[in-house]
Amino acid sequence: MMSAIANPISQPPVPWTLPYRGKVAMACLIIAESAIFTIFVVAYLFYLGKSLAGPTPREVLETPIFFTICLLSSSLTIHFAAKSLHGGKRGAFLALWFATIVLGGLFLFGTGHEWHRLIYQHGLTISTNLFGTTYYSLVGLHAFHVTVGLLMLAIVLLFALAGRVGAEHSARVEVLSMYWHFVDAVWVVVFTVVYVLGR
Amino acid sequence: MSSDALTIQTAKAVDRPWLETVHEWVITVDHKRLGILYILFALLFLVIGGLEATIMRIQLMRPHLNFVSPQVFNRMFTMHGTTMIFFVAMPILFGFANYFVPIMVGARDMAFPRLNAFSFWLTAFGGFLLYFSFLGGFGLYGAGNAPDVGWWAYAPLTARAFSPGHSSDYWTISLLVSGLGSIGTAINIIATILCLRCPGMKLSRMPLFAWMNMVMSGMVLIAITPLSAAQIMLLVDRYLGGHFFDTQAGGSATIWMHFFWIFGHPEVYILIIPCFAFVSEIVPVFSRKPIFGYPVMVGATVCIAFVSMSVWAHHMFTIGMNSYGNSFFALTTMVVGVPTGIKIFNWLGTMWGGKIIFKTPMLFCIAFLFQFLIAGLTGVMLGVAPFNWQLSGSYFVVAHFHYVIVGGILFAVFAAFYYWYPKITGRMLNESLGKLHFWLFLIGFHLTFDIMHIPGILGMPRRIYTYEPGRGWDIWNLLCTIGTFLQGIAVLIFVANLIISYFKGPKAGNDPWDAWTLEWLVSSPPPDYNFATIPTVASRRPLWDRKHPEDPDNLYE
Questions:
Q1: How far is A175 from chain B (nearest CA, A)?
Q2: Which among B92, B117, B113 is positioned nearest to B25, based on CA atoms?
């Protein structure tokens, strides 16, 4: 016993496992991003009903239920995609991954469609009133994150189609999946604030 | 394997074109080189920010002086504040964290070396962008050059109507960019500490340096991002015609203050916690005792991080909050004093009964202890809302926060320089020049900032470019300016010491201070890969265990 203490280097290697750095880093990024979104959500709530002129949320907003279902279900598809990759089922991975991109793309289309309607039918732009400023920046910030997520998902899809994504990459894919879950979770908050509480 | 086997002497070829060396430094992803780049970048901006301070002090030396115009004065205090916080204090602390966190936890590099390089260059780009405003800030309107809205840039000063041209945009974008760099480095530090510790380096055995830098990084994630969000909103206002801070359209100037100070107050702790880390490493080594109350130190740091997130509105007592708001923020401000006091007692407890060695690093640490205490006490005074109503926006506040930033942060940073310079360069800093630097800077600091409280109490507002004679402010302002010059000379001595000792200083060897953390195990400067064999640790003081195998620390932990 004493000799082991006296010469710590010669000790047999103890089992030593540490968390995966990708996951830790993504968790940190999510914390940082949450703080940014919190500020935008606070601004939205603070300025509710403070616009000096119309249109107001009650007059022009329509609840995007279909596109919300699309985005939230993409969380499921990416989860099972990552799981299939881990289990080595590459075909299932590809199909589910592609489905995730389609669902995310549909959501983005929904946002674009809504913005088009608001701008051309109701004349609501980012400079119209406080509602416009806070609405477009909050929803736009989220849409920006969806876009970034879709780009990264597309890159993985391209690599996967080229046959370069295998079970050994599942840890990295998991990291991307964490980000995508975060984007979905933020939408739950944005949806609640903008379309439920804010009207 | 003995510890000598881990010491690998680096013999490098010297005959290479200088351009190749520059190229190597530009493309480097090595945490040590990036750490040095961070520190050099910060030192450059320290001199620039110091010159701006000197210009302001010359202007205020006598009443009715015309050294600079009011417009230039506004630019000087804006650039001085922004530079010192974002491009001196943060990069210098990130530099030390970058250099020493991986070595102290027994890793070969940061968790994400390329992200590390990217973060540094973002910060550097932000700094140069800010100063490019002197040339490029004219914009399309021919109005303004450098930002002149104050470092907190209150609305509506930043509105298009009051800040035409692009000067405010340089401020906004440079802080946004360097903020992204800070977030990248913070993520990197946390991932390094959690994922790359060497075998045996449990969280409970980690050097306090690593612990405190991890807490600081966690604060960066939560506190810098609100500033980034507010900058995005400001850009939306200025470029897309948004109304976030536009009171004409129902927007609120107050909410900018809240967003700014939700960042601004934790920022102070982001800067001071790494300084606590320096002091927690240096005081034990120069007292020849292990740190007193290690778990309490960690707990107090985490506690400060939590509480400091809920004190921001004590910067805003004069905007007219209701009594609940005032009471809440006054109370939380007082509460921060408790864990901070615990730390001060722990450092005193470490020194108590120790064999204190009064080398330059220790002198700076001792001065830090006293000055930080006084800064904390004036902080408690300003935290009392009714007292704050009297002195908010006066030179008393300026004196208070310079006591924190110069008397606390800068003194600790100087201590860190004297302590770790031998490790980074392989040469000792000159001790006589160091002592001269210390005493001159100490006298200059107290002359400027002790005295600065007095014109504040006499009612001198901050940010005025001149004042009437006969208000009783004249002599105090003159003394403050004299102190500034003493500090300037001391900093020049320090820079000269850095340069002279690099070429002429005595060789340091691996472990000049007989210290206990892992960075002193490797050669000075450390080899590119840090450790030939990843070490295994069994206690909080791995080098003590190696030097005293008959009485290792792990018997007592």
A1: 14
A2: B117
B554 vs A5: CB contact, 8 Å cut-off? yes
- Picking from A71, A57, A67, A65, the residue whose alpha carbon sits closest to that of residue A197 is A57
- What's the half-sphere exposure (Cβ side, CA atoms, 13 Å) at B485? 7
Q: Which structure tokens are listed for B244?
A: 């976030």
DSSP state of B513: T
What's the predicted TM-score (pTM) here? 0.94
- In this complex, is the C-beta atom of B118 within 8 Å of any C-beta atom belonging to chain A? no
Determine contact: B186 vs chain A, CB below 8 A. Answer: yes
Contact B191 A127 (CB under 8 A): no
B427 — phi, psi (to 5°)?
A: -130, 150
Q: Which residues of chain B fall below pLDDT 70?
A: 1-14, 137-144
The CB-side HSE value for B331 (13 A sphere, CA atoms) comes to 6
DSSP label at residue B6: G
Tell me which residue range forms the domain holding A171.
68-199
B226 contacts A36? CB cut-off 8 A: yes
Q: Do A21 and B1 touch (CB under 8 A)?
A: no
Separation between Cα atoms, residue A140 and residue A148, nearest integer Å: 12
CA-based nearest residue to B91, from B49, B42, B44, B28: B42
Residue A11 confidence (pLDDT): 54
* Minimum CA–CA partner of A26 in chain B: B187
Q: Is residue A83 part of a domain?
A: yes
What contacts B131, CB < 8 A, 6 or more positions away?
B48, B79
CB contact under 8 A, B221 and A35: yes
Supply the pLDDT for residue B135: 81
Tell me the C-alpha to C-alpha distance, in Å, between residue B312 and each of B155, B212, B333, B403.
Answer: 17, 21, 9, 19
**Rounded Cα distance, B90 and B530, in Å:** 25
A6 → closest Cβ in B223, B536, B549: B549
Does B550 contact A at CB distance below 8 Å?
yes
Domain for residue A169, yes or no? yes
| Domain total of chain A | 1
Residues in chain A, total: 199
- The Cβ-side half-sphere exposure at B345, using a 13 Å CA radius, reads 9
A132 domain-assigned: yes
**How do residues A93-107 score in pLDDT, each as one tens digit?**
999 999 999 999 999
Whether B5 has its CB under 8 Å from any CB of chain A: the answer is no
Tens digits of residue pLDDT in B476-492: 999 999 999 999 999 99
Answer whether B79's CB lies under 8 Å from B52's CB. yes
**B262 interaction partners in chain A (CB closer than 8 Å):** 39
| Distant-in-sequence, close-in-space partners of B94: CB < 8 Å, separation ≥ 6 | B38, B123, B182, B185
- The CATH number linked to A166 is 1.20.120.80
The span from the CA of A61 to the CA of A75, in Å, is 25
Which residue is it, tokens 């609120």? Answer: B252
The token pair at B519 is 């960075």
Tokens found for residue B441: 């800077």
Specify the pLDDT at position B278: 97
Does residue B94 contact residue B87 with C-beta atoms inside 8 Å?
Answer: no
For residue B394, list its beta bridge partners: B461
User: Does ipTM top 0.90?
Assistant: yes
Cβ pair B87, B178 in contact under 8 A: yes
- In A, minimum Cα distance to B218 occurs at A28
B232 lies within 8 A of chain A by CB? yes
Task: Go through the domains of chain B in sequence order and give each one's CATH number.
Answer: 32-555 (1.20.210.10)
Residue A167 within any structural domain of the chain: yes
Distance from CA of A147 to the nearest CA of B (A): 18
